[in-house]
Amino acid sequence: MEIVLASNNKHKVAELEYFINEMCREKGIPGVKILTLRDIGFTDEIVEDGATFEENALIKAGAVAAKGYIGVADDSGLCVDALGGEPGVYSARYAGEPCDDRRNNELLLEKMKNVPTEERTAHFVSTIACVFPDGRKFVSRGECPGTILYEYRGTGGFGYDPLFLYEPYGKTYAEINAEEKNAISHRARAMAAFTGRFAEEITK
Ligand code: IMP
User: Fold this and answer.
1) Atom of ligand 1 nearest to the CA of 15
2) What end-to-end distance do the CA atoms of the chain give, in Å?
3) Could you tell me the residue ranges of all domains in the chain?
4) So what's the pLDDT on residue 36?
5) Distance 203 CA to ligand 1 centre (A)
6) Counting beta carbons within 10 angstroms of the beta carbon of residue 49, is it exposed (0 to 12), middle (13 to 18) or buried (19 or more)?
7) Which atom of ligand 1 is nearest to the CA of 92?
């Protein structure tokens, strides 16, 4: 069985690959090959114009399913309470196109500069969609709460990681290793919900 990950973000691809391999091991699903868009020569532009994370994840996975593959896609982002849920579905391009993590983080810091510590709550959201070539589809969601810092901490990860403090660890997402992040992240939580449903669908 081939699964195509509909993302060009190498960090997300790495995390999803880890989770799918874990899922296959746990559920005893043999012979799954994980492919990327590049592997299948997919070069179409995918327009992510959904109003929600779920819609965008389904658009991305659906684009791959339309080519005859099982498509899996994550759509994710950061929702900051003091900013009314921004950047939300615009997380990747918060500071405009082309997407640039550093500029996005600078904009977030600027907008949050006068927000007091106790009001800097936020959460990451991950929605993971699966679309089969025969039209079956589902999407799962996971969230992880945290706090937006006043300055960068840590050098690992990607996106908003250096500004997102995960309180139970007392560290930002950029200060923890992949194993620690994969144990608690929004993507891990979405994947926990995804696993059972995927196993159900492929054994139908
Ligand atoms: P997408 O690829 O359109 O789903 O955009 C997701 C965006 O949300 C990324 O470009 C990051 O800015 C942000 N994001 C999602 N997940 C994470 C994460 O685990 N760490 C840091 N930023 C993330």
Assistant:
1) 19
2) 14
3) 2-202
4) 95
5) 31
6) exposed
7) 10
